[in-house]
Write a structure and sequence with these properties.
about 325 residues; alpha/beta; Rossmann fold; four-stranded antiparallel β-sheet; globular
Length: about 325
């Protein structure tokens, strides 16, 4: 573990059973089908850094975020917070305040019948604090996210979408967490408020030194908020590196196609990613992107390529295998 490392994800796998096995299935000894949402993912995040997980819907980003904060438990691999293994929230309440998540839709993550104060104070339930101490902490958190503390007496269901998202952020920061997972933090609010929320997150990070893991499908949000980007596809990381490198000079064919499919101001018309994504229940034997890739080789159909280190980042693509070998000193 490096001195500046805050979070480490090592070979994490998460699978979910598909459907239920009836009596007939058990009698016939039919194998249960599984969906692999996260497949052997590894990366690290430094203190005060923002890593964006970028990819289409269904790429495993949100599942990985839930694993990081302990809402779900990995089937293989491990997640370390400052060197200590992260356990599920059911197993370790002590880690509850150190890992927080801002969910995509604040309307569904906040109880509409609870007061704003009770919603924001929820992470403090594991601490031995008086009601007055909790009230002071709630007011401080509301001020930090730009809300008047008088809102604490209102029910969360009475607030606007932008106010709800600020309350959700206030709840995430009240326990002074080490890592905050931001799951599509602006997609559920009005476009006129999105820039305000993004600027708020930047200001909070500068003030408090939070480490962010940003989940997004939008390259422009990743560009604004993140230091590094990890591109995910069907549970795998296909490319990871500094944000400017990945978004300005993408190497993996999927990253190139994903960026080309995103509308840009002053740019040409977006081009949808060619083909249909394979099934997560029966993924390709080789590279996950091979069925849609215009550059696929025979080896791409046989084995998923490992992440290889190049100048400026890592990429999982056989197009760069020879170049990576040269950089290691093994080429001629």
């Amino acid at each position: 573990m490096s001195i500046n490392e805050c979070l480490r994800v090592e070979g994490v796998v998460k699978r979910f059973p598909v459907g239920s096995r009836g009596l007939f299935d058990r009698i016939m000894r039919r194998k249960r089908k599984w969906l692999t949402a996260v497949d052997d993912v590894s990366f690290s995040v430094g203190r005060g850094e923002t890593l964006a997980l970028l990819g289409e819907s269904g790429s495993g980003k949100t599942t990985l975020g839930r694993l990081i904060v302990g809402l779900d438990k990995p089937d293989a691999g491990r997640i370390l917070l400052e060197g200590s293994e992260v356990k599920s929230v059911r197993e370790s309440r002590e880690q509850r305040g150190k890992l927080q998540m801002v969910f995509q839709d604040p309307s569904s993550s906040l109880d509409p019948y609870l007061s704003v104060e009770d919603c924001v104070a929820e992470p403090l339930s594991v601490e031995d604090l008086s009601r007055d101490e909790i009230h002071v902490r709630v007011e401080e958190s509301l001020r930090l996210v730009g809300l008047d503390p008088s809102l604490s007496r209102r029910r969360s269901g009475e607030l606007s979408g932008g106010q709800k998202q600020r309350v959700a952020i206030a709840r995430a920061i009240i326990s002074e967490p080490k890592v905050i997972v931001l799951d599509e933090p602006t997609t559920s609010i009005d476009v006129t408020l999105q820039a305000q929320i993004l600027n708020l997150l930047v200001d909070l990070q500068r003030l408090k030194g939070y480490t962010y893991v940003l989940i997004t499908h939008d390259p422009s949000v990743a560009r604004f908020l993140s230091d590094r980007v990890a591109v995910m596809y069907l549970g795998k990381i296909l490319e990871i590196g500094p944000t400017r490198q990945v978004l300005n000079s993408p190497r993996h064919p999927y990253t190139q196609a994903l960026l080309a499919s995103t509308p840009t101001i002053g740019g040409g018309p977006p081009k949808p990613v060619a083909g249909e994504p394979p099934s997560l229940i029966n993924p390709p034997q080789g590279c996950r992107y091979e069925p849609r890739c215009p550059y696929a080789f025979d080896v791409c159909r046989e084995k998923h390529p490992p992440l290889v280190h190049l100048q400026g980042g890592d990429v999982a693509c056989y197009l760069f295998a020879e170049k990576a070998e040269t950089l290691r000193g093994g080429g001629h």
